[in-house]
Specification:
globular, 22% strand, alpha/beta, single chain
């Protein structure tokens, strides 16, 4: 299946996306892979032919050098990458378990230490059509304040992705993300937890919880991933659509980054004007493909050939 012709892909190169959040090393038992939800989304969107700026920070250390080199080697802009003088490049210890993976996220990392002037300057130079904000980046007050300034400056559609990583979330930071969002992506395990933290009425019906969250925070639409049960979409007008799960085309390796892969295709579809049914189907297909590799992004660019 080929999703887009070369001409359409070139037209979308000018679509400016800005992504605010973490880039870090996912430390697996056998090796360290560069990751972080915002970075993963940026990598995929760039590979899909979209213009992307990642706003993040790394330390002045070997891992920071490796992150910058990897971004340059794949052609991703490093204009938004700051260097922290005091904090190390981010790391996450990935513990693989029988039914998935568990993250151990270290505190006081470089992506917690971004400065406003470079963010302001780059945003003014490249006004985005869509901005992406992950929830982990807002775990501390300084980044919450920076995100507030950034979102006030931007006039773009705000796409927020909830990633609950204990202990780095609370009602205050989640409320900030949701109040900023136009479009939300969340998974079926995080949705009840978010509703509980924010004091919304509980329900065994995941669809009802999604409707509550959408209405309370004035979201225009939501994408909810449900693992082996597929995913669904709903909007503020009462419309909805459910997509079945996609069968794996290769042996399962791990599910790290599958949600980020899903998000990247949704963003691509939003900018390209795809129907929501098309978005859900294509997003599920790409996410299933990512489950067949180690880590969140492919090592070879030709992995994307079937998805362009």
């Amino acid at each position: 299946m080929v999703w887009d012709g070369v001409e359409n892909r070139m037209k979308r190169m000018s679509n400016a996306i800005m992504i605010l959040g973490e880039v870090l090393g996912d430390v697996f038992p056998e090796r360290t892979i560069i990751g972080g939800a915002p970075y993963n989304v940026a990598r995929h969107c760039h590979a899909f032919g979209l213009g992307v700026h990642l706003l993040t920070a790394v330390g002045k250390d070997a891992l920071g050098e490796r992150i910058v080199a990897e971004m340059q080697s794949c052609g991703l802009s490093i204009a938004g990458v700051q260097r922290s003088d005091t904090l190390p490049s981010g790391q996450v210890m990935v513990h693989l378990e029988a039914y998935g993976h568990r993250f151990e996220i270290l505190d006081q990392q470089a992506y917690d230490d971004m400065r406003w002037p470079p963010v302001e300057a780059l945003t003014a130079q490249h006004p985005p059509r869509l901005v992406y904000l992950g929830s982990l980046a807002l775990r501390h007050a300084p980044m919450q304040a920076l995100a507030d300034q950034w979102l006030k400056m931007c006039t773009a559609t705000v796409f927020c992705d909830i990633n609950l990583r204990a202990p780095w979330y609370d009602a205050h930071s989640l409320r900030q993300v949701l109040q900023a969002a136009d479009i939300l992506k969340i998974n079926h395990e995080e949705l009840p937890e978010v509703c509980k933290l924010l004091g919304l009425p509980g329900s065994p019906d995941i669809n009802e919880l999604a409707r509550q969250l959408l209405m309370v925070f004035g979201l225009s639409e939501m994408f909810v991933t449900c693992g082996e049960q597929g995913s669904f979409w709903l909007d503020a007008y009462g419309n909805g659509f459910r997509a079945p799960p996609m069968k794996l085309q290769a042996p399962f390796v791990d599910s790290v980054g599958a949600g980020d892969a899903y998000t990247a295709v949704v963003i691509r579809g939003l900018l390209a004007g795809w129907s929501r049914q098309t978005m859900l189907t294509r997003a599920a297909w790409f996410a299933a493909s990512i489950c067949g590799i180690r880590g969140a992004v492919p090592a070879q660019a030709d992995f994307y050939d079937d998805f362009l």
